[in-house]
Design goal:
- The complex is a heterodimer.
- Chain A has ten helices and no strands.
- Chain A is mainly alpha-helical.
- Chain A has a single domain, classed as Orthogonal Bundle (MetI-like fold).
- In chain A, helix 3 runs antiparallel to helix 8 and helix 4 crosses helix 6.
- The two termini of chain A are 25 Å apart.
- The mean pLDDT of chain A is 92.
- By secondary structure, chain B is an alpha/beta fold.
- Chain B contains seven helices and ten strands.
- A six-stranded mixed sheet of chain B has the order 6-7-8-3-9-10, sandwiched between helices. A four-stranded antiparallel sheet of chain B has the order 2-1-4-5, with no helix packed on it.
- Chain B is globular and about 50 Å long.
- Classes of the chains: A mainly alpha, B alpha/beta.
- At the A-B interface, helix 7 and helix 8 of A face strand 6 and helix 2 of B.
- The structure holds adenosine-5'-triphosphate (ATP) and magnesium ion (MG).
- The site of adenosine-5'-triphosphate has 12 residues of chain B, from strand 2 and helix 1.
- Magnesium ion binds next to helix 1 of chain B.
Chain lengths: 252, 235
């Protein structure tokens, strides 16, 4: 983190402190110290980390399934042109559909539980990944594919050793976009669902805190959501993206 | 006899490229192909490598009719995107060894001959055009293929680099006893490299033995006269 960002954060906390003191009502706007204390308490005693863990695990399982789906679709798209055409068509219809909008039908199909969550994540993640992968496949150098043919590699080998690494940078940006969509969708869905598994996820945590008018608890939850977002976005996906883009020499 | 093209016909949509052509390539030959742009040089090379299907006729390689590319007829392109961007120079050259389970040539010796030792750990985007083509050539011969098919491999290089690589290809051709079919639009390059030259014209393919003795001196009068004669035959 550079110095300027550090100063911004200090400024933000300072103004928060100032305004919350003027407001003078912890039910509306608790002071930063109160939030910090509460955050610590919730993480340890309130098992907030467990809620966060549930949300993240749900997203990552969904990401994993979507990855397998997207790669299989890509594999068949290389072999059969119509597969790509078909999924492009499907993509153009389903990609714009917000995840939360399909939640009611997912609940009817899968019930309230992890199945519906996974389906939601898959919908959020699959289309951005597919969009990116198709774009990469369409501009994939013919010469590289011919190198595979030259050494008599079968489709699977060619995919694993040539196409997949070749489209890796696009794959990672797809995952990055998909992850952001999935994170939002999952937290909204959890607000709907209540307890699933042992505790439920971050969305459910926020709803519970609202029910008990625990404003400070809500802010503690929001802080956790922000931190998770920042860590994954900046320190995981951006890092991965940067490594591939640099190594692949795609930086223009 | 290494490769025989028997009664080959090839057309795209309504454009007829080849009609009933017969060509032979002996093992150890260095054939250069010239002709004006769009005449079908790359297509012919792709047919020789079985990358391009034919409408009629067959390609016979080592006495067998072949329909698919194989590891004994390796193609090298002009474009730089033929290298795997995520692999280093050394890894790019070793790539075919892993996928053919063969021992191939001694990679250290090859890296030396290609003058790539000092850049062996760099990635393709960190290399100059000439280095990239040397990597592509290294990769193409590491498995000791019988035939090398080269499609204007030096087409995007400057004159100096080009001369270096011409020398390199001649050296490798002799050293490893490969059959080379080399497409170029530079007639002087065709005369420098080939024992035989194929001129592709609209309705015919002219085959000419190269009369100039090696080592060839591009400044010599007979060399330049021969180049001039060939240019007159390109229609
Ligand atoms: N896949 C294709 N579909 C239709 N036409 C094609 C295809 N590939 C090549 N052609 C046509 O066939 C002709 C020969 O192409 P080819 O690439 O073999 O020419 P070339 O002699 O290598 O030209 P250059 O010197 O410009 O590389 C051209 O007219 C080209 O437009
Ligand atoms: Mg060509």
């Amino acid at each position: 983190m550079n110095n300027r960002k550090f100063i911004y954060i200090l400024l933000l906390i300072l103004s928060w402190e100032l305004i919350s003191r003027v407001v003078g009502n912890d039910q509306l706007m608790p002071t930063s110290l109160v939030i910090a204390e509460k955050l610590w308490y919730e993480l340890i005693e309130g098992k907030l980390w467990l809620y966060a863990f549930y949300s993240i695990v749900a997203i990552f399982i969904g990401l994993g399934i979507s990855t397998i789906l997207a790669l299989s679709i890509s594999l068949f798209s290389i072999k059969y042109k119509w597969v790509m055409d078909f999924f492009k068509f499907l993509n153009s219809i389903l990609h714009p559909l917000p995840g939360i909008a399909i939640l009611p039908i997912l609940i009817i199909w899968f019930g309230v539980g992890y199945k519906a969550i996974f389906a939601l994540v898959i919908h959020s993640v699959l289309w951005p990944i597919i969009t990116n992968l198709f774009l990469a496949l369409e501009t994939f150098p013919k010469t590289l594919s011919m190198v595979g043919d030259n050494y008599e590699m079968g489709l699977l080998r060619k995919f694993w050793y040539i196409y997949f690494p070749g489209i890796m940078p696009s794959f990672i940006s797809g995952i990055k976009t998909g992850w952001a969509r999935a994170f939002r969708a999952v937290i909204s869905a959890e607000m709907f669902f209540g307890v699933i598994g042992a505790t439920g996820g971050l969305g459910w945590y926020l709803v519970k805190k609202r029910v008990f008018l625990d404003t400070t608890g809500i802010f503690a939850g929001l802080v956790v959501i922000i931190i998770i977002g920042i860590i994954l976005e900046r320190f995981v996906f951006n890092k991965l993206e940067k490594i591939t883009i640099e190594k692949w020499g795609l930086k223009s | 006899m290494s490769i025989v093209l028997k009664n080959i016909s090839k057309k795209y949509e309504n454009k007829i490229l080849f009609e009933n052509i017969n060509l032979e390539i002996d093992s150890g030959e260095f054939i250069t192909i010239v002709g004006k742009s769009g005449i079908g040089k790359s297509t012919l090379l792709s047919i020789i490598g079985s990358f391009e299907k034919v409408d009629d006729g067959e390609v016979i390689f080592n006495e067998k009719s072949v329909k698919k590319p194989d590891r004994n007829r390796i193609i090298v392109f002009q474009t730089f995107d033929q290298l795997l961007p995520w692999k280093t120079v050394r890894e790019n050259i070793e790539f075919p060894l892993i996928h053919t389970n063969s021992n191939g040539l001694d990679i250290e010796k090859l890296l030396d001959e290609l003058d790539l030792k000092s850049v062996e750990n760099l990635y393709p985007h960190q290399l100059s055009g000439g280095m990239k083509q040397r990597v592509a050539i290294g990769r193409s011969i590491i498995t000791k293929p019988q035939v090398l098919l080269m499609d204007e491999p030096f087409g995007s290089l400057d004159v100096g680099t080009r001369q270096n690589l011409q020398r390199l290809v001649l050296f490798l051709w002799k050293e490893y006893n490969i059959t080379i079919v080399f497409v170029t639009h530079d007639v002087s390059e065709a005369v420098l490299l080939g024992n035989r030259i194929w001129i592709l014209n609209e309705s015919e393919i002219i085959e000419i033995e190269n009369p100039i003795m090696r080592p060839r001196d591009q400044m010599a009068a007979n060399y330049q006269m021969f180049v001039g004669e060939l240019i007159k035959n390109i229609k």
